[in-house]
Design brief:
It is an enzyme of class 1 (oxidoreductase). The protein is α/β, with parallel strands linked by helices and 442 residues long. The chain contains 17 helices and 14 strands. It binds uridine-5'-diphosphate-xylopyranose.
Length: 442
């Protein structure tokens, strides 16, 4: 099938690449000329395992193309995906200007039936707005004879495993009340709908809410566990034991109940906030979501609080080795990363940071530039030199079994603040470290 994808961000590029991989013919449209040119030359704007070969091979095979020409895009696809960003506006609501701009572009140039599919995460009711926008412009063009369907098809990919998530989805949610659109979407996704039925068809509004409900549920699990961890610390319990104890109940499950330094990334913080705002706009008090958000904001400050307490509030002139800058492993994404809240608090208190991350060094440099109080280190060991303590913020595999003797030798003081419970407290004690972690009192 011929497909057009508007917006070559994370979601759009991965979606386009996997559709091309199974044989569809895909054109990606973006307003950023530089990005389009670089993609044509095989330069991928994001770090995502497996994405680069997929883009290069399918581009070389002629099934995946990139353009800034919106008219070419509209003419190409039988299905037009909208995968542009929905950044939070001033009050945290999702800003729909890019989504509606693409809808307008499609309406201005279409001259046959079109299926317009919303892949961006958009508030409930956006499908109706897209529908109205397209109908308005078609009427202005005197082309109200042209028919179209608006479909909601939310994306559930995780950064770091985006290609795998999309190639083997758990579910494919399709929001539409049109039989025709449902059939076309089923055909488009048939290559991914193997082994068992994964397509779940529902109305547009339910599909839109499904995306938010999924992310907010996951965020709730994390904030709940962080709350339990904070309680465990005070009560003298071990959250890791508690995690096992509750995860063994299949109704709770082991996934997504790891306490830590708070959730970050481009989705959870934004989506929880956007759903709170959606609720506010209809005078509904989303009490649970507000608590989830508040707990998370506070959780991002807990590592700093532990460091500050350990050094009796005297952090001026201290140097901290920081391992892990990205909001989670296997990505270079620093959006809403807990490392940023920590670093900014350390700098505010007059401390310096020697930071290392396997992928996010460029991103850190881009965000913070050349500050005097941050040293970007080429290896995890060089970050340790003469530092007063090691702070672990992101649980990269490369940090799981470090040489503890080297750590001890390089640090001025054998102290570790671990925001991800990477190590066993008893072993750390035996190795001679002062070891702080999350939800474990020892
Ligand atoms: C998330 C959803 O998982 C995905 O389905 C959706 O489409 C987009 O948002 P992503 O933001 O890539 O994906 O990251 P994810 O792996 O879900 O992690 C989100 C955050 O939660 C990270 O900061 C992570 O460290 C944190 N987290 C996750 C925990 O603190 N504890 C856990 O148990 C799990």
């Amino acid at each position: 099938m011929k497909v057009t994808v508007f917006g070559i961000g994370y979601v759009g590029l991965v979606q386009a690449a996997i559709l091309a991989e199974v044989g569809h013919n895909v054109i990606c449209v973006d307003v950023d000329e530089g990005k389009v040119e670089r993609l044509k030359q095989g330069q991928i704007p994001i770090y995502e395992p497996g994405l680069e070969p997929l883009v290069k091979e399918n581009h070389a095979a002629g099934r995946l193309n990139f353009t800034t020409n919106a008219i070419e895009g509209v003419n190409h696809g039988e299905v037009q995906f909208i995968a542009v960003g929905t950044p939070p506006d001033e009050d945290g609501s999702a800003d729909l200007k890019y989504v509606l701009a693409v809808a307008s572009t499609i309406a201005q140039h279409m001259d046959r039936h079109q299926i317009v599919v919303d892949k961006s995460t958009v508030p409930v009711g956006t499908g109706d707005k897209v529908q109205a926008q397209i109908a308005k412009i078609l009427a202005e063009r005197g082309r109200s004879d042209l028919t179209f369907n608006v479909v909601s098809n939310p994306e559930f990919l995780k950064e770091g495993s985006a290609v795998a998530d999309c190639m083997k989805p758990d579910r494919i949610v399709i929001g539409t009340d049109s039989q025709h659109a449902e059939e076309v979407m089923r055909e488009l996704y048939a290559p991914f709908n193997r082994n068992h039925e994964k397509i779940i068809v529902m109305d547009v509004r339910s599909a839109e809410l499904t995306k938010y409900a999924a992310n907010c549920m996951l965020a709730t699990k994390i904030s709940f566990m962080n709350e339990m961890a904070n309680l465990a610390e005070i009560l003298g319990a071990d959250i890791e034991a508690v995690r096992h104890g509750i995860g063994s109940d299949p109704r709770i499950g082991y996934h997504f109940i790891y306490p830590g330094v708070g959730y970050g990334g481009s989705c959870f913080p934004k989506d929880v906030q956007a759903l709170i705002r959606t609720a506010d706009h209809i005078n509904f008090d989303a009490k649970v979501l507000k608590a989830v958000e508040a707990r998370n904001n506070e959780q991002k400050t807990t590592l700093f609080a532990k460091i500050n307490k350990h050094f009796n509030g005297n952090l001026k002139g201290k140097t901290f080795a920081l391992w892990g800058l990205s909001f989670k492993p296997n990505t270079d994404d620093m959006r809403e990363a807990p490392s940023r809240v920590l670093m900014e608090a350390l700098w505010e208190a007059g401390a310096k940071v020697q930071a290392y991350d396997p992928e996010a060094m460029h991103e850190t440099q881009r965000i913070y530039g050349n500050r005097e109080d941050i040293l970007l280190c080429g290896t995890k060991e060089s970050a340790l030199k003469h530092a007063d303590a090691l702070v672990i913020v992101t649980e990269w595999q490369a940090f799981r079994a470090p040489d503890f003797d080297v750590i001890k030798e390089l640090l001025s003081e054998a102290t570790i603040f671990d925001g991800r419970n990477m190590y066993d407290p008893k072993r750390m004690q035996k190795r001679g470290f002062t070891y702080y972690s999350v939800g474990r009192s020892s």
